[in-house]
Design a protein that fits this description.
By secondary structure, the protein is an alpha/beta fold. It is built from 4 helices and 6 strands, in the order E-H-E-E-H-E-H-E-E-H.
């Protein structure tokens, strides 16, 4: 199963990448990281019955930060950038990870 990230999430993560010299790090507040992780967990659970590997696709600039956010709670989920997918591979995106899932709105 393949999931995309809502462009709003991608933009928020990208805005919180800070560069100091050679290093870059994420300055996203913990409550926002938790909200994004929870949204990913809900999307994952909604398609968990599928025996296929779960992949989250995002842009290359934020890929490693998204992976870091998800790795503790969703260690089996791969996070790839669109550029890492061979052009000949057909992508069947099941859903978009969004902070607007009904469960997210109700629990906010």
């Amino acid at each position: 199963s393949c999931f995309g990230l809502d462009p709003e999430i991608e933009e928020e993560v990208a805005k919180h990448i800070k560069k100091t010299g050679q290093d870059c790090f994420l300055t996203l507040p913990p409550n926002r990281i938790e909200a994004i992780t929870r949204a990913a967990r809900l999307a994952y659970r909604s398609h968990r019955a599928s025996p296929k590997k779960v992949v989250v696709l995002t842009n290359p600039e934020i890929r490693r930060y998204v992976r870091k956010m998800l790795e503790l709670e969703l260690p089996d989920v791969s996070v790839l950038s669109y550029q890492e997918i061979e052009p000949t591979i057909l992508i069947d995106q099941k859903d978009t990870i969004s902070l607007n899932y009904p469960e997210m709105v109700m629990s906010a």
